[in-house]
Amino acid sequence: MTALTASAAGTPSLVQSVDWLAVAPVVLTAAVGLAVLVADLFVPERRKPVLGWVSVAGLAAATASLLPLRAGDRTTFCLPGTPDTCSYTADHFALVVQFLVLGGALITALLSVTAVRDARMPAGEYWFLLLSSAAGAALLPASRDLATLIVALEVASLPAFALVGLRRGDRLSSEAALKFFLSSVTATAVSLMGVSFVYAATGSLHLTQVADRLEDVPGQLDTLAMAGVALTLVGFAFKTAAVPFHFWVPDTYVGAPLPIAGYLSVIGKAVGFTGLILVTVIAFPAYSDIWGPALAVLAALTMTLGNAAALRQSPDRPNSAVRLLAWSSVGQAGYLLVPIAAAAYSDRDQIGSTVAYALMYAAVNLGAFSVAALVARTKPLHRLDDYRGLYAQRPLAALALAFFLLCLAGLPPGIIGLFAKVTVLRSAVDAGLGWLAAVMAVNVVVALYYYLRWTALLFRTPEPAAEATGAAQDPADPGSDTEAPAAAARAPWPVTAAIVLTAAIALALSGAPQLVLRFATGSLFAQ
């Protein structure tokens, strides 16, 4: 009645319709998660795997629901009387990141089907948490106000804490979850303080209004606004694993179930980089002289420390393969930060380089984790030495992993990796950040060593002792050396599907890398 009366008096009505098609990817993912949680109460134990397939189907449907939105011209939850100021915008930028998030969650779900069964994790809780996190991650790129951004960040993060620690009785899993939780909560609290400072200085939470009002902040509020800008970036920098907010990464990846480690390495970073792009380039361009140099320094430190730590991984050390992927993801985060920092010094279209690089990284990194999940079925210590001679046992898996590693290294035939690195490097040069381009070039060369070392292991002759060790770890027959080849021949088809799907995407991107960049460049500012 109040809304109707206000409308009759000539003021804007507070009643508005919701564009359900625009929010369909997020709503569908969340709805399937709730349905799985309720169904878990009634499904008998022997039928629990059905919940996994329902989740896979739900994520596939959510990904397909992006197709009707490809025009990138839908908005909803707008302020009354100001249709251009909305809380949810399904533009090209949001659609690309949502495709990355939902596609990555779909690959994770395929890897999880067998992992949940083999590790005897609670199926209902696992799938509900995964879908809830994916829904929050899909909401974030479409968010256009600071409140929705923080809520989406937490919806994506809180279920991830539980997923990391879901392996009951596993000390490493519990420690990883606790470290992840405490550090993330601290970063979020700092970000919330920053958002409150920004709101106090501008009187708005919508990104476009914040940008307009920060252009003319009263002198007495300038220090408050600068502090708010700096503190707001902390939570998103934590999600990207940028130095010095990276310390949680290696232990969390080792302690988490392998599919969740892959999920965090891709979707977790997508959430962080999306948030950084939205708050810096859209909300805080007036303070680019603050966040631009800060992000440039963070990029240099992150790629350098990540690659240096990856070099130190010993091939015979347990979990060395997972730790190498963890530190590699820190190094890759440094590359992803470069175009965002460059946007402070030149036109904002540099952001397209980050989006294009993120798409490449998501496909090949999830592919590497998919092959790791396959190898871990017979060699669960996750050592780099476990991959020695993989080509002799699983030639297609070895070729796929070699392709993924060469993409990450930026070497042919991984054309998409080379193209992405050149694009990022060029963004730094165009912005006048020659020193950052030089640091990146050095780090790319350094990273070649550990990527090529792992690739070379795949094609070496297996050592007899290593083969015996692998056979002794075979859960099907702990004491038989002769069972190793038979065990290696069996690959669960969901894991195989994940490897094939990621390899197909990486090959497609390598075949037409310019299409990715053309679609991504300027998509955030198409309207």
From TrEMBL:
Protein name per UniProt: NADH-quinone oxidoreductase subunit N
Transmembrane segment boundaries: 20-43, 50-72, 92-116, 123-140, 146-166, 178-200, 224-248, 260-284, 290-312, 324-345, 357-376, 396-420, 432-452
Quaternary structure annotation from Swiss-Prot or TrEMBL: NDH-1 is composed of 14 different subunits. Subunits NuoA, H, J, K, L, M, N constitute the membrane sector of the complex.
Top-rank taxon: Bacteria
InterPro entries in the record: NADH-Q_OxRdtase_suN/2, ND/Mrp_TM
Provenance organism: Streptomyces subrutilus
Main localization category: membrane
Functional summary from the UniProt entry: NDH-1 shuttles electrons from NADH, via FMN and iron-sulfur (Fe-S) centers, to quinones in the respiratory chain. The immediate electron acceptor for the enzyme in this species is believed to be a menaquinone. Couples the redox reaction to proton translocation (for every two electrons transferred, four hydrogen ions are translocated across the cytoplasmic membrane), and thus conserves the redox energy in a proton gradient.
GO MF annotation terms: NADH dehydrogenase (quinone) (non-electrogenic) activity; NADH dehydrogenase (ubiquinone) activity; quinone binding
Family recorded in the similarity comment: Belongs to the complex I subunit 2 family.
One Gene Ontology biological process: ATP synthesis coupled electron transport
Annotated membrane topology: Multi-pass membrane protein
